[in-house]
Amino acid sequence: MLRIPYLLRILYLPVGIVLGLIAGIIVGLHAPAVAEATGWMGTFFMNSLKMVILPLIITSVIAGVGRIGDVKKLGRKGFWTLLVRGE
């Protein structure tokens, strides 16, 4: 089995992100038609993230409120949490 050095394992993701960012900028500047044609992928990715994350946030807020039991114990912080997180 190939052993990957520790530093390469740490830098693999950040370097990949920076390279992808640079490639996206270059494609966007030099071939805007390609950038527009592939723009749906970014929209799809962001919508997929929202679809996964929003139920997790709502579930965690509901579970937290349910664990407290008494609504009066929530107080001000609970009100603002529900107001901000409830969207």
Topology:
Elements: H1 6-30, H2 32-37, H3 39-68, H4 75-86
Helix pairs in contact: 3-4
Describe, in short, the structure shown:
This protein has 87 residues and is mostly helical. Helix content is 84%, strand content 0%.
Keywords:
4 helices; 87 residues; mainly alpha
Note down, in words, how this protein is organized.
The chain is built from 4 helices and no strands. With 87 residues, the chain is an all-alpha fold. The termini are far apart.
* Count of strand segments: 0
- The average pLDDT value, as a whole number, equals 83
Q: Indicate the proportion of strand residues.
A: under 5%
**Distance between the terminal alpha carbons, to the nearest Å?**
48 Å
- Could you state the order of secondary-structure elements as H and E? HHHH
Largest sheet: none
Gyration radius (Cα, Å) is: 22 Å
Shape: elongated
Helix fraction by DSSP (H/I, runs of at least 4): over 70%
